[in-house]
Each structure stands twice: as C-alpha cells, then as structure tokens.
C-alpha cells in the first residue's frame, strides 16, 4: 500500500451535510470552546466514543454529521475476511492512541450492502475517510502499522488545513473503557491449543500453516464448525494470492466455458464482498457444464458457502438455486 496524498482532489461529495465553509466555522467555534475549557482547568472530554459500529440507519448521524467536527475513518470489513482481522485491531488501537484526532467507524459489508456500493468499494478491507461530508479513499488491503500511521497523519493535516477540523481532546483510557462497557461480553470458548494455533497462523498471514493446522484439528474433530470456517477462509485467501484481478476477469469474460477462470473470479468476488455475484457465477457454471467441470464448480460453491456461513440468507438462496439446476 502506498499512502495517498491528502489533497482532497477527487473527493466524493456525499451531499448530506453542511458546506465546507460552515463546517470550518463550526470547527473554529469548537476549538475556541476547548481553549476556554482548558484555560479554566477543565479535563479533556472522556465520553466520546473513538471506535463506533455504524450501519445504514446510523450512518448520517454517526459519520456525516460527526465529520463536520472530526475526521471520520471508515473501516469496511466482514467477519469472514482474514485480512480484515489483521487491519482492524491496528485501526482500533490507533484510534485510541490519537485520542480524538479522528473517529473510527466500522461498517460490516455483509449487513450494509448499500453503503458498500455507495462508496464503490472494490475489495475488503477498505479504508475511507469522511471530512465535512466529503468521502475519499485512503487504502485497500491489510497494511502495516507504519504506513497506516502515515496515511492518518496526512488525513489529519488535510482536515485541519482544508476545513479547520481538528477533532477533540479525549481521554483515551476512558474512551477505551467506555467501548468495553458497550460491547457485549461473550463467554470465552473452551480452550483448544491446536485451534488457537490455527487462528494465529491465519491472522499472521501464514496461510499454508493455517491450512495445515485447521486440517489437523478436523482430523481429530471432523465436526468442529470453527475449524471448518477457518480452513475455508485460509484456502480462499491462499487461492487468490498472486492473482491479477483484471486479467482473471478478462479471462472469465473471454472464455465462459473455462471453468478454472470462472472459479478464480468467483473467489475474487467473494473476497471483494460481492457474495451474490460469486454464488451466481458458480450456479451458472454448474448449470451449463457436465461431468468433472460441473463437479468442480459445485464443490467450489460449497466451499464458499462455508466461508460465508450456512445461516446467511444469501447462502440459503444460493443452495436453493443450486438444487434447482442440479435436479
């Protein structure tokens, strides 16, 4: 990932908040109020959430309106996305460290397809920023922390220079505590060292090691749902390594009879969050093929079902479509 120049050129105007001039005026007023409060010996604001979960119903209030006072960084992610699990902890930790210079808004793409499409996200994880109602892409993919810091520093500088938006002073320890109180406490799963090692390998990007580790768990516990999901994720990410998306899509379009080309694009679609497209492509491939080709497309579709989860409505719909073309 190469950090972008935060010039704001080409930013997408979301047309849902006040104009930049008004945002700048509001930010200047907020700065004056903070200066007065600090002169009076008041403590930093403690109860501003630095990391928030946002959906389509709360987007305008939590992102657009907030963006007139503080830069809002958006993390597009999904539960099944391995690289997301590498990037999200970095962003959350930096949100607390920067203590109010930006707010991190987390958006689950599976539950918020409208926002996913509105921003033109091509793959996840994807990170955008919104400043004074204007959105601009920052980077895509799991990036190392030093480069993430560089992008955030550029963003904060651009927000202040262009709009006068500097965020607010927050007690990071209290903000972290507030988030822990708000998040539901889930019981810890039973300890399984082999499964934990598999998860660690996946989170660390060791896909070969993760695949072997999950297979070892399943050899002992064939019904372990968590290991099946992890294995499917690791295999998917391993398959797309080194794939050129443009070349793969061109090959699939030029050669619709090429089953391998269709499988490759279905993988790319799923990783990019285009779940229905991936399922539809494979159902169509099953429908027009026979023998080993049909079986290869069917098996890949079942593997992608494992990645998304059996209870997902899109999986249920695709299973019905698969059954119709098979029988």
Automatic annotation (TrEMBL):
UniProt region (Disordered), positions on chain: 174-195
Gene3D superfamilies per the UniProt record, alphabetical: Glutaredoxin (3.40.30.10), Tetratricopeptide repeat domain (1.25.40.10)
Domain called Thioredoxin: residue spans: 37-157
Pfam families: Thioredoxin, TPR_19, TPR_20
Protein name: Tetratricopeptide repeat protein
Biological classification of the source: Bacteria, Bacillati, Actinomycetota, Actinomycetes, Kitasatosporales
